[in-house]
Design a protein that fits this description.
The complex is a heterodimer of chains A (279) and B (248). By secondary structure, chain A is mainly α. Chain A contains 13 helices and no strands. Chain A is globular. Chain B has one domain: 3-Layer(aba) Sandwich (Rossmann fold), CATH 3.40.50.300. The chains are: A mainly alpha (279), B alpha/beta (248).
């Protein structure tokens, strides 16, 4: 019976899609944001602060480092893109945590809302939350440091789309863990992404890492993205091989994240966690 | 022959070594109000969770309006709804926003009209634009009932529907539920500790004890069978494992 339920829960992930239900969930989280100025400020606060700090660091290094002088936007670009990955994952996970904190999962999952619709709504909200958080820092980077990430062409937009998708894959894995272990695991939503920071080669090339760690780094979409970013910034070359590497790995990350989410959702129905989880 | 509204067959749920319910079977015919009674830990919430598809039984099957809740729950979920003190509506959203979200999730036609209608019927029109978290417990109960009725469900599962309500409001909600069941031909299964409520509202009672159905029947049948004047006395007999033979 339990195994049959697991299979059915996985089947539910892909069945009977309704745009109206997805928009209903987007509406729910939009209402939450609209009604809370502190939430909006919190989203924009850290990316803006990071950008200001790294903007001044860049200005300092431009006079002291020929490498940075040759590619002035490389540090600010790295910071902005890293924050994008972080905001994508945290934005996705936070939508789910909000439902747990408000003890609303029981209502949601006895409604016709399917898990796949729930996940797509969280992706949309992650995009919205990410843009709310990052837009002020992008504007300030342009105003104070004359740096615009968009001046590097559409290739860079393709790379940062890859970071959003990677954030969603990781976000699904994180909420799978929270569903499995309860709110005790919620801090994972904040820290999980940082395990990827050293191997994503955000501020240095992958070749800086020890050889064995380079193998691990090339298993993360983010390493392809940051290498691709450096290639655009330093050499002015858009490397499609790196973009396709990131896309391929993203598909794998999304599949693993979706699989983990489907599995833990099915287990939550077996163990009765959908009703119990809350503050 | 009409398809039963709810059909539970040999439901068993184990959590490791603990058996929450064991071999629970019952049929609820369409229309009318059925009570699920039992002391704390008798298995009412587990049974309701399984009926809703939130919990997968270890053994047994549940069919709601003829649909299997393990294999085919999404066919019937639009026709059901529930309310329980164990789940909340998001506190930071206004009452109107919460109801709008659920109206959209249940694909309700003309959602704003339905929200206004429910707010008038359940007497929370003045609170529509207040944050749900700012409401009193009784007001929250009425709003939760509004959410449970947003899609005009054919099967409504209610856990303690009048908990936290003052006697006047509780009486008013009972009248509303009676009228709703009668006018819509809906089936209501409610778990309650309020025996007066059950005697007044319910056509049929399922008495649970220690994870199983201990007895069943109409309130009048149970009163007669146990030779008691009130359903509360029958409840105590069953909860304390006194059989009708002991009491006669």
């Amino acid at each position: 019976m339990t195994q049959l339920a697991d299979l059915n829960a996985v089947a539910e992930i892909v069945g009977g899609f309704s745009r109206r239900r997805v928009l209903a969930m987007v509406r729910r989280h939009y209402y939450l944001l609209r009604g809370s100025l502190p939430r909006i400020l919190e989203m924009a606060y850290w990316p803006t602060l990071q950008m200001v700090i790294w903007g001044f660091v860049t200005q300092f290094f431009m006079g002291h480092s020929s490498w940075v002088a040759n590619a002035s936007g490389i540090l600010i670009g790295a910071v902005l893109l890293w924050d994008l990955l972080f905001r994508s994952q945290i934005g996705f996970s936070m939508c789910f945590l909000e439902e747990m904190w408000s003890r609303n999962l029981g209502h949601l999952f006895v409604s016709p809302l399917r898990p796949a619709e729930f996940v797509i709504a969280m992706m949309a909200m992650s995009l919205l939350r990410g843009l709310i958080g990052l837009l002020p820092s992008w504007v300030l980077a342009y105003v104070f440091f004359e740096f615009s990430i968009f001046s590097y062409g559409p290739g860079i937009v393709a790379f940062f789309s890859c970071l959003f998708v990677m954030g969603w894959g990781l976000g699904m894995a994180v909420i799978a863990l929270v569903l499995r272990f309860g709110l005790g695991a919620e801090s994972l939503a904040w820290v999980a992404i940082f395990a990827f920071a050293p191997i994503s080669a955000v501020y240095y090339p992958v070749s800086t890492l020890p050889e064995w760690l380079q193998v691990v780094a090339w298993c993360t979409p983010s390493a392809y993205v940051f290498e691709g970013m450096r290639s655009v910034f330093i050499d002015g070359v858009f490397r499609t091989d790196l973009l396709f590497g990131a896309i391929g790995l993203n598909l794998l990350y999304l599949a693993i994240g979706a699989g983990l989410f489907a599995w833990s959702f099915a287990r939550a129905r077996v163990h009765g966690r959908l009703l119990q989880i809350g503050e | 022959m009409l398809t039963p509204a709810i059909e539970a067959c040999a439901l068993t749920k184990r959590f490791g070594e603990i058996t929450a319910i064991n071999d629970v079977s019952f049929v609820v015919e369409p229309g009318g109000i059925t009570a699920l009674l039992g002391g704390n830990g008798a298995g009412k919430t587990t049974t309701i969770s399984i009926l809703l598809g939130l919990l997968v039984p270890t053994y047994g099957t549940v069919r709601i309006l003829g649909h299997d809740m393990v294999r085919d729950r999404y066919s019937v979920l639009p026709l059901m709804n529930f309310s329980s003190p164990y789940v909340d509506l998001p506190h930071r959203l206004s009452v109107r926003e919460n109801l709008r979200v659920y109206a959209e999730l249940y694909s309700v036609d003309a959602p704003e009209k339905r929200i206004t209608e429910l707010a008038e019927q359940l007497d929370f029109a003045g609170m529509l634009d207040r944050k749900t978290g700012q409401l009193s417990a009784g007001q929250k109960t009425r709003v939760a009932l509004g959410k449970a009725l947003i899609n005009r469900p054919r099967v409504l599962l209610l856990d303690e529907p009048t908990a936290s309500l003052d006697p006047d409001s509780a009486d008013w909600v009972r009248s509303y539920l009676e009228e709703y069941a009668r006018e819509q031909g809906a089936t209501i299964l409610l778990a309650s500790h309020h025996m007066g409520e059950v005697e007044r509202l319910c056509d049929r009672v399922l008495m649970m004890r220690a994870g199983g159905i201990a007895d069943r029947g109409s309130p009048a049948e149970l009163l007669h069978k146990y030779g008691r004047a009130t359903l509360e006395e029958v409840f105590l007999d069953i909860a304390r494992n006194r059989t009708w033979a002991d009491t006669s």
